[in-house]
């Protein structure tokens, strides 16, 4: 563009952005600035363009991108490489073990010995001491009655029958369902109590027994 001593308004408007961008030659800058001094519109446009330029420059200076911390990046890379190397080393050792028959046998023997040691030295569970009615009790010397009740007889019915004859369970039931009964009357020679039990349909078996008699 041929620069003259003065520019028209239209030319100045077109050249204002290049003036702010510092892309014009010295004579062009002088001509545009001279026009802006006498033209209110171009002067305001020039001020707006300069403010916009300054804002962009200020924002660029304040938003500087921080340099990456190469120490952290290198540390992460080293850790990743170390994990990969450990994985390869483990796979290599496993291949060495399973590629050789005698090493497989040795590994199997080691596992067997560990299991055997666990079985031998594992603490045995403590046995819980308890007493059931089926276990034979140490009875005092005296007379007793052994009975077998009907399997259809429930425990409340058994208790009712025993209460009616003043009997108590002192032992049993055994594995065969035999109860040993004690009674308040120390003499059953008359057979009344025994006969009453034998006559009861809920009693399958009844017989006297003497504990401690020679």
Task: Produce a short descriptive summary.
The chain is of the alpha+beta class.
List the defining traits of the structure above.
214 residues; alpha+beta; Alpha-Beta Plaits; four-stranded antiparallel beta sheet; 7 helices; 55% helix; elongated
Question: What would your notes on this structure say?
Answer:
- By secondary structure, the protein is of the alpha+beta class.
- It has 3 domains: 9-62; 72-101; 142-211, Ribosomal protein S6/Translation elongation factor EF1B (Alpha-Beta Plaits, 2-Layer Sandwich).
- It has 7 helices and 4 strands.
- The chain has helices at residues 9-20, 26-38, 40-62, 70-99, 101-121, 155-164, 192-199; strands at residues 142-149, 167-171, 179-183, 203-211.
- It has a 4-stranded antiparallel β-sheet with strand order 2-3-1-4, with helices on one face.
- β2 (167-171) and β3 form a beta hairpin.
- α1 (9-20) packs across α2 (26-38) and α1 packs parallel to α3 (40-62).
- The radius of gyration is 57 Å and the shape is elongated.
- Residues 127-136 have low confidence and may be disordered.
CATH topology of the largest domain: the name is Alpha-Beta Plaits
Rg, nearest Å: 57 Å
Secondary-structure-derived class = alpha+beta
Mean pLDDT: 76
CATH H-level superfamily title of the largest domain = Ribosomal protein S6/Translation elongation factor EF1B
Instruction: Report the span from N to C terminus.
Output: 149 Å
- How many extended strands? 4
Q: Which spans have pLDDT < 50 for at least 5 consecutive residues?
A: 127-136
Largest sheet: 4 strands, antiparallel
The first-level CATH class of the largest domain is given as Alpha Beta
Encode the helix/strand succession as letters.
HHHHHEHEEHE
**CATH architecture label name of the largest domain:** 2-Layer Sandwich
